[in-house]
Model the fold of this input.
Amino acid sequence: MNSDSITVAGQPGIAGAAATTSAIPGEGVQTANVTTSQVGAGRGQRFDVGWLFQRGTSEGCEAPGFDDGDWRHVDLPHDWSIEDLPGALPPDQLGPFDRHAAGGTATGYTVGGEGWYRKHFRIGALPPGARVDVLFGGIAVTCDIWFNGQRVGSHVHAYTPFGVELTPHLNRSGDNVIAVRVRNLGRNSRWYSGSGIYRHVTMDVTPAIRIARWGVGAWTRRIADGRAEIDIETSIEGSMRGQTLVTRLLDMGGNVAAEAKSTVDGCVKQTLIISDTHLWSLEDPHLYTLEMAIRQGTLIVDQLAQPFGVRIVTIDTANGLRINGTPVKLRGGCLHHDNGLLGACAYAGADERRIRILKARGFNAIRSAHNPSAATLRAACDRLGMLLIEESFDMWHVPKEPDDYSQFIGQDWKSALGTMVLSARNSPSVVMWSIGNEIPERSTQEGMEWCWKFANEVRRLDPTRPVTAGLNGVLGEPVSVSEHTARPGCAGKLDEASTAFLDVVGYNYRLEDIEADHERRPDRVVYGSETFPREAFEYKALADRAPYVLGEFVWAAMDYLGEAGLGATVRLPLDGMPFFIAQFPWVNAWCGDIDLIGDQKPQSYARDVIWGLSPLEVLVQRPISDRQREVVANWGWPDELPSWTWPGAEGLPMAVRLYTSGDRVDLSLNGKVVGSQALRPGDRMRTEMVVPYVRGTLEAVAYRNGAEIGRKRLETAGVPARHRMAVEASTGSCDRDALIYVGIATVDAQGTRVPDCQLRIRLTLSGPAELVGFGTANPLAVGSFKTLETETFRGRALAILRGTGRPGLIRIDARSDGVEGDVLSIPVS
Amino acid sequence: MDAPLYKPSRAFERPVVIAQPLNADTTPLAVLLAEPDARAILAREAPVVEQAVQGDALRPHLSNFSLRSLLPFGLITLDTLQRMDTQLQALRQRPGQRP
Done:
């Protein structure tokens, strides 16, 4: 993502400071059988609109003259695995889910296969030497690309961006056709990957001399007394004859905060010095604009601009992680790439929504598990103040699934690491590069060599951030590394096979080992790279007392598709085995603090208290028969809800769990005190009281040192009376990239949400919007995410609308049998 | 305040591995399975684990686990763990460097 603009030499030039942004005329022009776009000069031109798509295998689709007249029109991002299966037959096929899907629980019973995309476009008049590239943000899982019938590229890493050059085969006067074959075959992923061109696509039309793709590396080297020194290295391609590279840092008002000019060379090194620096931090994620321009006299030959945050991150055992000298404990979550009901589609608005939701719950860091994140997510982290660990691989050479990326890594690792690092290195949010997650062979001799290769390559590309990895199990045998091979200062020191080449060590599920390991390896900086939700209190306490512990990343921050039932909480017969293996129709992991549509799950309420967002939360355990037991997976949480609506449980003893930062909590039911509990440090901010269920009002009050610090009330809801719709913060834009989230809750006559309500619900939608997702957080498949009908889960549903590019009034109506509907009008312009 | 640098090193030379006695706490399952005597202990005392680690589905995930690190996942009991640890430590010391 950048806001690049360009004036190509040979076209009207700009004498002076600013360049114009090139127009992108004609997107979506209809011809007889195709959608033809007209593309002009410029970087970062949207290339998402007007693609044609066919699901399935076909012959000859790469040919320019192939008849694609009956193909479906799609605008990117697009993921066919989240669309309904053609001709789906319940009960084994429900919406996009298929009991017999190759990926099984791993991919949430979704179906991959092969799909083809084609796009027709015409190119405007371009000067000689101009170069045309298409940049794909990500294609899942593998792809091959043809342009005007010539094969121009292929890609095997589902999560790294890549470009293909079209110039040699460009038809400058007629129709151009780009064809992309995408395959998602076999068992290739441990989670839902999605299928298709699921991230944004842009086109760069650049002049003969240009700034290389991801060719700018900027790094804040020193900050002192409000003054910052920023080192910048710029790679330039093409024939150089007396051009000047002008690099500027612009403040939010567009004023020049610093400027450097250099004669253009293949690699230009510059330093910008700014005073009164407005630093980037989590609380104040201030972004400058870093603008680079190649000038020939007064003509701007090439130009690009990107956000840049001035900050220095340091990490050491004595002080942990500090941003600009201020200590920050990582309150992190692991995050897969999917956007819930939207599948893998990386809409900017959807990625930003996830970061906003997590930030509101106190998270300050994301581990992009287990792949590089989308540029849209990273941009949201930069803008909103969220730290990010970018991760390259879930496996190296030993497969975790039979058809996974391990078959490609031997040839692809340099490309994968290169694109991950170079495309993200200027993001202030990125604090570490991870070279792997739970790599099976990491402690073998061969594994150590690959670990060194990967880590060293990352340091070569970007020596400004530490290298890390997520390590489960044990760390391998002690090793000693020579001076040639060791990290600086580590030669000859004892380390472990898994950690010798890591700057910061991620421990997956190894809470008990951290302090013991510190006794043996006091120079090691660690963090919980994956943690169980139930350990939130322990990690908070550990990070607070141990400076060498950076914090934790809970698995997972948000629910995701695939790894179905990983966090399942189920009821099993008392006389049976206490094990549960999830199968169809389980389709999501059900282990996030936040559910698939963005609402809090019980562990999130508990975390609110532990992280200091709330002084008191009240959850009630769902009653269970005396012939059953509740079995909670390691990644799960007991089935407790912030609810006092338990029809059928009248008179039954109810376990009321109270999470509080207070030292005492009182509980009353319908105005009568039913219990009071003192909390001691060993209680881990949690206590429990048992109260017979009676309809009415359950109220808890928390105290510290005798003073009230919090009060929570749960009201018994009546029968479902109506639906209530609400639009989440909307930009009001009708743009094709704009999403509108409409939450739907089923409430009683008094407006209290009915927490366990499951009702069929139908939408009617009119106006300039397209429904791109409609569903719930239900971890079990119930049907489509793409039709106007669903079944509420726990009294909620979510509709996601996409602008059509036309202004107007969107009208959405939600109805069910037996309850009053609701209607919303949403103006967009 | 100066920013830190994490510089690449010059070349790869094999690290010297200091082989440790087999035990339940720190020896990875992959190593136990590669040692016939240790594998026999595993097969005798925890056959479910021994079989699970052979399977394509779990082998990649469990190969870095020690017996103790299986405890939180309920795949082994503390009693069994201690019994196996005693037997593993009684095996003769592995000589030299692990290949």
Observations:
- The mean pLDDT of chain B is 87.
- The longest strand of chain B covers residues 16-17.
- The interface with chain A takes residues 1-20, 25-28, 30, 56, 59-66, 69, 72-73, 98-99 of chain B (CB under 8 Å).
